[in-house]
Amino acid sequence: MASKLVYVLNGPNLNRLGKREPEIYGSQTLDDIGAMLVERGEALGCEIEMRQSNHEGHLVDWLHEAQDEGAHAVLLNAGAYTHTSVALLDAIRSVSVPVIEVHLSNPHTREAFRHTSWVGQAAKGTIAGFGAQSYLLALEAAAEL
Ligand code: DQA
Fold first, then answer.
1. pLDDT per residue over 21-63, tens digit each?
2. Which of 29, 53, 82 gets mutated to test ligand 1 (max ligand atoms within 8 A of its CB)?
3. Whose CA is nearest to atom 1 of ligand 1?
4. Per-residue pLDDT tens over the stretch 81-125
5. Whose CA is nearest to atom 7 of ligand 1?
6. Is the pTM above the cut of 0.85?
7. How far apart are CA 101 and CA 123, in angstroms?
8. CB–CB of 100/123 below 8 Å?
9. Catalytic residue selected from 25, 72, 81, 135
10. DSSP for the chain?
11. 48 - beta bridge partners?
12. CA distance 122 to 100
């Protein structure tokens, strides 16, 4: 079976996972999550391309790249850009590759400014609130698309 290429794009401050507000985001690092995704991806026939940046434009560029590379799906945890970035909304709309919005926490149970998601307005679907498990659930959904 040919491997399905899945981009996993992570936005600002997610490089601090493990140290950053562990009571909200858990104790696993982004590398830990990447390793879990690679392992589950092998079972699901998915090749994982894991990226992180603190810069909005990198996420825009990588969404375009995912399309150009023929990716099967993108998992996107845009961090705080979720709630601010019309550029990411437009980038998702500019590609046809399905984008699944992912969050470790459930933004709807948190501050009001987290209740709006620009990303979610163009995403295929959203998985939030399950900690690191959110990424694995999103990968399983992606593999089925
Ligand atoms: C987050 C939720 C966002 O509101 C926040 O800005 C983050 C992380 C999450 O994974 O729970 O940086 O995307």
1. 999 998 999 999 999 999 999 999 999 999 999 999 999 999 9
2. 82
3. 79
4. 999 999 999 999 999 999 999 999 999 999 999 999 999 999 999
5. 79
6. yes
7. 6
8. yes
9. 25
10. -PPEEEEEEE-TTGGGTTTS-HHHH-S--HHHHHHHHHHHHHHHTEEEEEEE-S-HHHHHHHHHHHHHTT-SEEEEE-GGGGGT-HHHHHHHHT--S-EEEEESS-GGGS-GGGS--TGGGTSSEEEESSTTHHHHHHHHHHHH-
11. 6
12. 9
* Check whether domain 4-144 has CATH 3.40.50.9100, yes or no: yes
Tokens encoding 109: 């149970």
The identity of residue 114, as a single letter, is: R
